[in-house]
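Input sequence (111 aa), recorded before submission:
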Amino acid sequence: QVQLVESGGGLVQAGGSLRLSCAASGSIFSINAMNWYRQAPGKQRELVAQITSSGSTYYANSVKGRFTISRDNARSTVNLQMNSLKPEDTAVYYCNARAIWGQGTQVTVSS
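Predicted structure, token format:
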């Protein structure tokens, strides 16, 4: 069973950048879709970005043009580069594959 561990969250000012990483304990080569979700206080968890094994990507409209998802199958990692951060990006960010979830990493953007 693959386990996922996120890292890279923190506190940043609006307009700043953060890079989130998701490390898988096993190979992600056979996993098609790797996802980043986020959940803000009082809100539902939402899909932020997805990358398939072929490299196709999806972004939520709210992050399009600011966030970039990437994956390295050899290192079993999935990254989320977040630029031009806004206060509304504040949330716990989760890495996901199939029914597997990481523990989440907090991102806080101050105005």
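Checked by second reader. The radius of gyration is 13 Å.
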